[in-house]
Design brief:
single chain, alpha+beta, Beta-galactosidase, Chain A, domain 5, TIM Barrel, Immunoglobulin-like, 3 domains, ten-stranded antiparallel β-sheet, eight-stranded parallel beta barrel, 12 helices, globular, binds (2R,3S,4R,5S)-2-(hydroxymethyl)piperidine-3,4,5-triol
Length: about 725
């Protein structure tokens, strides 16, 4: 709940076990006081600590010589009038200068929250007791207001923040930076954790000590990217997976972002996240406003694991929307790695036939079904069936697949245009480009200019036509290149640097329209695997294809790293053929299954090539998944052994009532005369007695306390890349 003490100016946000506090100073600035474990609000004003500094930290208030913006912990700092650290925003006025000074004007506390127009955000439902405090600050000289919105979600122990600029003045202003949040910790004794990598190697965990100066992660690629995820966490140096204080910040946005920490000359740490200010401007004419995306703030005193579980619950319940949110996600087979572009109706039906026999629930037709698409060099934008490949048409194919007892899903890459396409012949100016410059292609394709209304409408109309033409139950929404020559002929010269963000707003509009028009369809987002695995996409599409790397051993790090923020129910994970197509590794089908069973399960290979014994193994995997699916997709997730730290990995899923659990244990390389070891389980009830079963073989009863504190013997495995599934069921 939120309180504001009129006498002191202290505001106190309580979100479950978390407190966040600040103060409106007598000079009208918003100063940060505290973020961490819940405290009583009574004495928070005593956290204000003003100290005299040398004249290199300037001040402007002759009555308070200790008051300098350079030392004051702040909530949304400016640059130009005393604070030399990185600002949360910057505005250029029409006289060319960039100095502004916003001071407190008013605040209001409301039930619920104000809508973030056109942007994905945490939403609330009737039973939630969410509250917001909205501060209005004003720079009188330019007649511009700044609204800072803070919302608390007590049930989810979470806080969100965002900012909105409103120009009421007669002159235009230009935002050169507008982050979503900024706050100052009074020390920098932290380690910074971020998720970084590359295509096919996404979201690996990186952790390092904070040093004086700036440390940032960012994307300039026009999407959140494979390279850095819009998330950072600050950890106490001794914080572990299970203990210690952790502060996580995640941006609900899918485009260019910047997140970072600046350690200043007084050893304080300024943390921020928002739209990347690189190549960004936003012009506000009189009466116009700009809304930043929303940032999620999660505090945990139960280590990284505690932070992750809070993110998981919030993203699963209050970011993911629609009828599939709480539904079991189907087991699918996708033909991509099975056939690539080389398929016809008969081949697809052969795969569907096998899929049906194995118990698979959804058949997904990937790239290559439209235009004249026989490789990746043409036809994006021409969303009509490729009659040469599928002469009977889409409806006939869908109905034959449905007759085999499977639902049907279809791949699109709606944001793209191939120079070799009918669409490009008709509209060569519909792609992102700048006048008289070469258009750089990536995977032989250009990007449609989604900042334009007519382009958005084209996508909505053409994709809707296909989706209305047959009973399609699932859509894979792909996006396979990053932006170059970011410019739009539809925008005037002084708005060109708005293009990348306008693209995102256009994309969000298209996704909002499509998902509301087709509420029964399950949408899965994809960007060459996990190039846009972010909370913005999850608001529209409940799941994401985690990585184009389907190798079980590579996936250990990718899925483990992804789970730092994102819930298991959002991660697509498929069994593929060996040698693996990305890394050429040969791993046992059982292990490929166990790793994929730890996400939204599926197969991505030509099932008709499975031998009889492989079919038997796959059938068992599918049966097992159907039994444990609620636990995997909606249970609490605990990381046990990190693949970043050793030769094995393990994690587990625990039901809410703690009566059921599943542990996945994977050993990477066989070690001669290997160390003997145990590993401790997590999340169980110490008072329960559990029946433990390893791959169907009962190994007896164990006390919950014993499993938690003494641990379980590591399975004794022979050979490389071996794994085991361990099931625990509490005795009633
Ligand atoms: C990239 C995706 O990540 C793959 O799964 C596949 O859909 C291809 N695109 C198809 O072009």
């Amino acid at each position: 709940m939120i309180t504001f003490q009129a006498e002191t100016g202290v505001f106190h946000l309580q979100a479950g076990d978390t407190s966040y506090a600040g103060i409106v100073t007598p000079q009208g600035h918003l100063s940060h006081l505290y973020w961490g474990k819940q405290v009583t609000g009574q004495y928070l004003h005593k956290l204000v600590h003003l100290v005299e500094r040398c004249s290199f930290s300037p001040w402007n208030d002759r009555n308070h010589l200790f008051y300098s913006l350079d030392t004051l912990p702040q909530e949304y700092p400016a640059y130009g009038n005393g604070d030399f650290r990185t600002p949360a925003y910057q505005i250029q006025l029409d006289n060319g200068t960039t100095v502004t000074h916003f001071r407190y004007k008013s605040h209001r506390i409301i039930e619920g929250k104000q809508k973030l127009e056109g942007l994905p955000a945490v939403y609330i439902e009737a039973e939630d007791k969410a509250q917001s405090i909205i501060f209005t600050l004003e720079d009188e000289l330019i007649d511009t207001e700044l609204e800072l919105m803070y919302t608390v979600y007590p049930k989810h122990n979470a806080i969100t923040r965002s900012a909105r600029f409103i120009n009421n003045g007669a002159n235009a202003i230009v935002l050169q930076r507008a982050f979503s949040m900024s706050l100052d910790f009074h020390h920098h004794n932290f380690e910074l954790l971020h998720l970084s990598g590359s295509w096919a190697r996404e979201r690996h965990i990186h952790r390092r000590k904070l040093e004086p100066g700036m440390q940032t992660v960012e994307s300039r690629r026009g999407s959140s990217s494979h390279n850095h995820n819009p998330f950072i966490a600050l950890l106490e140096p001794h914080a572990t997976e299970d203990n210690g204080q952790v502060y996580g910040v995640n941006l609900i946005y899918s485009g260019n972002f910047k997140a970072g920490v600046e350690v200043d000359h007084y050893a304080q740490a300024r943390t921020f996240i928002g739209i990347n200010d690189f190549d960004f401007n936003w012009r506000l004419e009189q009466g116009e406003s700009f809304q930043t995306p929303e940032a999620i703030l999660i505090y945990s005193d139960e280590g990284l694991g505690g932070m992750s579980r809070k993110f998981h619950k919030l993203l699963r319940e209050r970011v993911v929307r629609g009828e599939h949110r709480d539904k079991a996600r189907p087991i699918l087979v996708n033909n991509w790695e099975g056939t690539y572009f080389d398929f016809n109706e008969q081949k697809l039906l052969e795969i569907a036939d096998e899929a049906n026999k194995l118990g698979i629930e959804l058949f997904v037709l990937d790239d290559g079904w439209f235009g004249e698409r026989n490789d990746d060099k043409s036809s994006l934008g021409d969303w009509f069936i490729n009659k040469k490949k599928l002469p009977n048409g889409l409806e006939a194919l869908v109905s034959k697949v449905n007759d085999k007892g499977l639902k049907f899903g279809l791949w699109f890459e709606p944001e793209m245009i191939s120079p070799k396409s009918k669409l490009y012949e008709a509209h060569p100016d519909w792609c992102l480009h700048v006048p008289n410059r070469e258009r750089t292609v990536g995977r032989s394709q250009l990007i449609l200019d989604l900042s334009r209304k007519e382009v958005q409408q084209y996508i909505i109309d053409t994709i809707s036509n296909v989706l209305s033409s047959a009973p399609i139950a699932y859509v894979k929404w792909d996006m396979n290149r990053n932006m170059t020559e970011i410019g739009s002929p539809a925008l005037p010269a002084n708005r060109q640097r708005e293009t990348a963000h306008r693209y995102m707003l256009g994309l969000y509009h298209v996704l909002e329209t499509m998902t509301s028009k087709f509420p029964h369809i399950l949408f899965e987002s994809c960007s060459g695997g996990g190039g846009r695995f972010d909370s913005g996409m999850l608001y529209y599409m409940p799941q994401t294809w985690t990585s184009d790397n389907s190798d079980a051993i590579s996936r250990l790090k990718i899925q483990y790293g992804t789970s730092i923020v994102y819930p298991v129910s959002t991660m697509g994970a498929h069994v593929s053929a060996v040698p693996n197509h990305q890394v050429h590794r040969i791993t046992p089908l059982e292990t490929r299954g166990n790793v994929a069973l730890s996400g939204n399960f599926g197969y991505e290979l030509d099932l008709s090539k499975f031998t009889a014994s492989e079919k038997k193994i796959a059938k068992n995997q599918i049966e097992l998944y159907k039994t444990i699916r609620p636990l995997i997709q909606f249970g609490d997730f605990y990381r046990l052994l990190s693949p970043f730290e050793g030769n094995d990995a393990a994690w587990m899923f625990v039901s809410e009532n703690k009566k059921e659990a599943v542990v996945m244990y994977i050993s990477v390389l066989q070690e001669p005369n290997a160390p003997i070891g145990r590993f401790q389980l997590k999340g169980l009830d110490p008072a329960f007695i559990y029946d433990v079963e390893v791959e169907g073989d009962a190994i007896g009863e164990f006390g919950g306390d014993q499993l938690l504190y003494a641990g379980l013997q590591k399975p004794h495995l022979h050979g490389d890349f071996q794994s085991k599934v361990i099931r625990l069921i509490a005795k009633s």
